[in-house]
Amino acid sequence: QVQLVESGGGLVQAGESLRLSCAASGRTVSSYVMGWFRQAPGKEREFVAAINWSGGRTTYADSVKGRCTISRDNTKSTVYLQMNSLKPEDTAVYYCAKDKIGYRVGYLPASISEYDYWGQGTQVTVSS
User: Fold this and answer.
1) pLDDT of the residue at 113
2) Helix, strand or coil for residue 86?
3) For residue 49, what is the DSSP state?
4) Integer Cα distance of 10 and 14 in angstroms
5) C-alpha separations of 119 from 25, 96, 101, 112, 122 in Å
6) For residue 26, what are the contacts with CB-CB under 8 A and spacing of at least 6?
7) Helix, coil or strand: residue 89
8) Closest C-alpha to 36, from 47, 25, 45
C-alpha cells in the first residue's frame, strides 16, 4: 500500500506562485513515475505534469508548460509542483498519483488509468 498526501494549496492572486508537495509513505515510490493532475468544478480530472523515477525526465500539459516545474526528492519520498504566474483557470483540486509500472521506460503516462494510487488532493484557488 502507498499513501500519498498533498499539501501547499491555498488562495492566491493571479500572477503569484505556489509550491505543492506530495509526500509518499508505505511502499517506496522511488522507482515509479509520479504525476500531478487537477480537477476543476464541473470538469473532468486532467493531466498536469509527470516525472520519471530518477527525476531526469519530465512532461507537462500545454496549459501549464513554461509556468510549472515538477521535481522529486527520492530521499524524502516527496514530489513537488512549483507553479508560477498562476491564472484563475488554474483553480482546481490538485492530486498527485503513482504510476502502475515501476522503472517505466519510454513515454511518461498522462492518462488517469495508468496511475494506481492517488492522494486526497489540495485546493488551489486563484483570484483575478
Assistant:
1) 97
2) coil
3) E
4) 12
5) 11, 6, 18, 13, 9
6) 1, 2, 3
7) helix
8) 47
Locus of grid cell 488532493: 121
Pairing of strands 78-83, 68-73: antiparallel
Residue 94: closest CA among 47, 51, 39: 39
Predicted confidence (pLDDT) per residue in 16-29, tens digit:
999 999 999 998 99
For residue 81, the one-letter residue type is: L
Report how far apart the first and last C-alpha atoms of the chain are (Å, whole number).
Answer: 40
Longest distance between any two alpha carbons in the chain, whole Å: 41
Give the DSSP H or E segment for 60.
strand 58-60
Where do we find the cell 493571479? Answer: 14
Residues 124 and 90: beta-carbon distance below 8 Å: yes
User: Using an 8 Å Cβ cutoff, are 90 and 68 in contact?
Assistant: no
Q: Which pLDDT does position 106 carry in this prediction?
A: 84
